[in-house]
Design goal:
This is FAD linked oxidase. The protein is mainly α. Helix content is about 50%, strand content about 10%.
Length: about 80
């Protein structure tokens, strides 16, 4: 699998986003473990892109939190 390793600056950016999710009231699950990320990076094609995390919203409120946060200029 071709990996694009994130820089330390990018990792900090991902961490800030995920922390802001929790602080914003996100109640679903956040998966950062390698196993979950590998499963989600794999489909029926020959390509894989390993995500830094995966979020699993519990309800529409969580989806709205993710959407609002992702729309902010710093993210």
């Amino acid at each position: 699998m071709a990996l694009l390793k994130p820089t330390s600056e990018q990792i900090g950016h991902y961490d800030r986003f995920l922390n802001a999710l929790v602080e914003g009231g996100f109640r679903g699950e956040i998966a950062r473990d390698h196993g979950s990320r590998t499963v989600l990076a794999t489909d029926n094609s020959i390509y894989q892109r390993l995500p830094q995390a995966a979020v699993f919203p519990m309800d529409s409120h969580d989806v709205a939190i993710v959407a609002r946060l992702a729309a902010r200029p710093e993210y």
